[in-house]
Amino acid sequence: MLRKIRAVIVDDENLARVFLRRMLREDADVEVVAECTNGREAVAVIQKEQPDVVFLDIQMPEMDGFSVVHNLSGDWLPKIVFTTAYEQYAIRAFEMHAIDYLLKPFNQVRFADMLRHVKDRIINEETTDQSQVRALLNTLGRKSDHLERLVIKNEGRFTFVKVAEISWLEADDKYVKLHVGKSTRTVRQTLNSMEAQLDPKRFTRIHRSAVVNIDRIREIDAMFNGEYELLLDDGTKLNVSRRYKDRLFTLLGKPL
Fold first, then answer.
1. Does residue 50 come out as left (phi exceeding 0), alpha (psi in the -120 to 50 range) or beta?
2. pLDDT digits (tens, 9 = 90+) for 181-228
3. pTM
4. Is 77 left (phi over 0), alpha (psi -120 to 50) or beta?
5. DSSP of 136-193, one letter per residue?
6. Where would I find the H helices in 65-129?
7. pLDDT per residue as tens digits for the range 131-185
8. Pair 24, 30: CB distance under 8 Å
9. Which domains does the chain have, with CATH numbers?
């Protein structure tokens, strides 16, 4: 290459920045010109440095990765490689084919594939395709949208699950088990975080460790202690705690 690729790293986690910096240092074609710990700093640095590529974390306090790009003024945009630990964003990036994407934790093989992709685009394109990038950001950054599909990574393979097919979700420490019929998938996320991304007209908390798809409920039985038991269409039985019963019945409506 005639010149080095100028890169900026944006992540609020120090370990993530250190890891990216070390990986990039192994490539003689890349120069890290700046590192940022938050979105507001990133906007100023990116506009000043005009890097070729930005490794941009999605989840950051105050200003997330989507907002960073939305706040970059002018027609110019660098190549954006989003990084995040949450699988649910990945499928939307895959669908657009506009930029690359790193799902934490990623290995050297995945990183090398991404970097080859970035290099190819920088060598073969003089400017970033603005329409594709903006369209991707609009798709990813709509706060009012709810998840429709999930991409789940397991041993280097990606599988896709339609949210409507999930019967219920179960908390398991820092993970969530997705019960889809008789099968179970696990995602690296908390139940609170997952619930916040689901359609509240279709999914509701019934217990501190469980969220249910109301379309999968077949019957509700009253228990002697003021709690209720749900029977799902696949035969699963779940308890509804007194704390969440009002929310459930508000969604289901009054009995006829």
1. left
2. 889 988 877 888 788 778 889 999 999 999 999 999 999 998 877 789
3. 0.54
4. beta
5. HHHHHH-TT----EEEEEETTEEEEEEGGG--EEEEETTEEEEEETTEEEEESS-HHH
6. 65-70, 90-96, 108-124
7. 555 555 555 554 445 777 777 766 666 778 889 999 999 999 878 999 998 899 8
8. yes
9. 5-141 (3.40.50.2300), 149-252 (2.40.50.1020)
